[in-house]
Amino acid sequence: MHLTNSLIQIKEIGIIYHFLILLKKSSQLKLQFFAVLILTAAVLYGCGTTQTAAPVTPFSKNSYEIYGKVYHPIDSAIGFRQQGVASWYGKQFHEKKTANGETYNMHAMTAAHKTLPFGTMIEVKNVENNKTTIVRINDRGPFCRDRIIDLSFSAAKEIGMIKNGTATVEIVALGTDDEVLAESTKIKQNISTSTDPANLYFTGDFTIQVGSFGDPGNAEKLKKSLEKITKDVHVVAFKKNNRTFYRVRVGRFNSLKQAQTMEQHLVQNGFKNVYTIAWDL
Questions:
Q1: Domain count for the chain
Q2: How far is CA 44 from CA 3, 17, 71, 221, 265, in A?
Q3: Pairing of strands 120-126, 167-176
Q4: Closest to 81 measured CA to CA, from 50, 37, 120, 40
Q5: Is the pLDDT of residue 36 over 50?
Q6: How confident is the model over 192-204, as pLDDT tens digits?
Q7: Domain residues for 43?
Q8: Mean per-residue pLDDT, 271-278
Q9: What's the pTM?
Q10: Which CATH number do you get for residue 24?
Q11: At 240, which CATH number?
Q12: Nearest-angstrom CA–CA distance, 76 and 132
C-alpha cells in the first residue's frame, strides 16, 4: 500500500486482494499461517512507472512475493531498529481488510511493514521535526523500494507528515500487542474514561470456528459441549450451492493474539479441529 493525498498525483491504483487465514497447529500447538493475504496498491509519484497487479506466489511459512521480489517476515522484532522514508495510506483503504485479516481504520494507530511480525508495536520518530507516535503493525507494505513503512492517516498526522506526504523516520520495536492490551486494561481499572486506549491500536475482528454441519441438530450438540468450557458460543447459518450449513463458532476478538489464546484453550480441552478466521467469513 502506498500514500495518497491531495498533493500527490496518483497515476494508477491496482489492488490485489487475496485473503486466506488458515491457522494449523503442530504437536506443540504452535500456530502457523499457511497463506498470506497480499494487499498492494498504487504506483505513486516518485514510485516508478505504472505497474499492473502481479500474481502472488506462496512460499514457505509467511513468505510472499510481490512483483517478483520475495519477502520473508521475521519471527521476532526484539531489538529491531530501522531508518528510512515513511508514507501513509488513507480513505481509499478505510474499512477494507488488512494483510492479517483485520479491518483497516485510517483513524487508528496502525501501520504496514514488509517484514515485521503482525502485532508488533513500533515507535515512529519523524527525524525532520522530532515528533513521535506509536503504531501497531497489522498490514504489509509499502512496496516502493525507497519506503520502509506505511502509516495510517492519524499516525501520519501525529508526526506532521500529511502535508509533505512522506518523511524520513526512525522506527524502533517496543513490544507486542498483548503487552499493550494488558497495559490498557490497567489504565481502564485506574482511570474513569469512556475511551479504551486499546481502540487506538486494535481494529481486528476474529472468531474461532470449531465445526460446520448440514444438520442443525449436530451443530447444537457441539454448541452445548463447548458451553461446558467456555462462553459466547454461537451457531451461524450460511448457504452454499443451494444448501444450508451451520457453523459453530466461539467468541469475538479484537486481536489475533487473543483469538490464538482461545484456540489453544479449546485444543487443550479436546477440540482439535479448530481454527481462527475473520468474523465476517
A1: 2
A2: 7, 19, 21, 54, 45
A3: antiparallel
A4: 120
A5: no
A6: 444 455 566 766 6
A7: 16-56+75-178
A8: 86
A9: 0.57
A10: 2.40.40.10
A11: 3.30.70.1070
A12: 23
